[in-house]
Amino acid sequence: MLESAKSTFSPDILYVADGYFKKGEKAPLHYHDTIEISIVLKGPSHYYINHQHYLVNTGDIIILNPYTLHYEEETEDVSHHMHLGIDNFQFLGYDKNVIPIQTPIIRPQHSNYLKQLVERLLDEKKEARLYQETTIQLLTTDFLILILREIDKQQLPIHPMNQKEKDKTILANSIKHYLETHHSEDISLESLSSSMYISPTYMSKLFKQETGESPINYLIKVRMEKAKELLKQNQYSIKEIANLVGYQDAYHFSKLFKKSTGISPSEYMKGLPLIS
């Protein structure tokens, strides 16, 4: 059973956002550095979470732990969501600001009551009222407790402290996937971190912890392996291959290739068996 690490349950409410998505609209890939919990007030809608697609419907709950890459896309009609950001939140035996889940999508048994609670919450936000902040805090806490009870009821046991490490691995794999599929583009540490919606410092540290090397070194390895494949085809000049794997300067490419393999690209080509 999940238990709060504190004697009282009083997380900080960072924001309560009311969001509508029209057909054809798509949010950019992003993440949050705290927990975000969303409820679908009118569906269906499409969520892409850590490169996995989820179709969500009215009443569904989406749990996003910190640094979970995601975006929303609407392909059918207008969808309506409420997004709740929370901080200063911890379960006994787990890292701060981590909800231990097996899946990010929860389908609660009492979705109608939750919807009514959220509608009261959104109505309370519409205009300034006496004790408005206190009321919002109470309604939000009630909503959170109901969600956490649903998670506690539905989720299979998960090993304590593993969720945050799992999220880091997923994020590192997302960076690797991006580098492997965009290796021909002009990529810098800054542009890569911007694409991942992560600070360059945090991204470099996380990636090195997970893979043992920097993102740029990994990119060079990917490019050199692709260059070898192209050299084997014997269809392109060294300058063309340099451009195809993301280098505008053939001399710089040749230096990196020799550093990686011990021989130059032209020597590598000469050592290949002739293909008739």
UniProtKB/TrEMBL annotation:
Protein name: AraC family transcriptional regulator
HTH araC/xylS-type domain mapped to chain residues: 173-271
Organism expressing this protein natively: Vagococcus hydrophili
Molecular-function annotations in GO: DNA-binding transcription factor activity; sequence-specific DNA binding
Pfam families in the record: AraC_binding, HTH_18
Taxonomic lineage: Bacteria, Bacillati, Bacillota, Bacilli, Lactobacillales
UniProt xrefs under PANTHER family: ARAC-FAMILY TRANSCRIPTIONAL REGULATOR (PTHR43280), HTH-TYPE TRANSCRIPTIONAL ACTIVATOR RHAS (PTHR43280:SF28)
Alphabetized UniProt keyword annotations: DNA-binding, Transcription, Transcription regulation
InterPro entries hit by this protein: AraC-bd, Homeodomain-like_sf, HTH-like, HTH_AraC, HTH_AraC-typ_CS, RmlC-like_jellyroll, Tscrpt_reg_AraC-type_HTH
